[in-house]
Amino acid sequence: MTRRLKFLDDEKTYLGNQLECEFGGERVFGVLADMEFILVATYKKDGTAPELVLYKKDNQLRPLPHKTAGGF
């Protein structure tokens, strides 16, 4: 039995990226986040066979303070 969960709200804006594995292979990593959660998944390059790696939700997430002197 396959279970489907809805993580995203069509009315919100999210930050995301897709990263290829540096060790090769046909799987890639997808990273998606907003101010309340981060989601990391892996899937084949064509988007099939997804696997959830991490889903962390926290209503207390805050942005890191910016460094003003000697920053990045």
Overview of this protein structure:
- There is one protein chain.
- With 72 residues, this protein is mainly β.
- It is built from no helices and four strands.
- It has a four-stranded antiparallel sheet with strand order 1-2-3-4, with no helix packed on it.
- Strand 2 and strand 3 form a beta hairpin.
- It is globular.
- The mean pLDDT is 81.
Please identify the structural class as seen in this structure.
Answer: mainly beta
The description of the largest β-sheet is:
4 strands, antiparallel
Beta-strand fraction estimate: 35-45%
Unreliable stretches covering 5 or more consecutive residues:
none
- Rg (C-alpha, Å): 15 Å
**N-to-C series of helices and strands:** EEEE
Based on CA inertia axes, which overall geometry fits?
globular
Percentage of helical residues? under 10%
**Mean pLDDT rating:** 81
Q: Please report the distance between the alpha carbons of the first and last residues.
A: 47 Å
Strand order of the largest sheet: 1-2-3-4
Secondary structure tally: strands: 4
Top keywords for this entry?
4-stranded antiparallel β-sheet, 72 residues, mainly beta
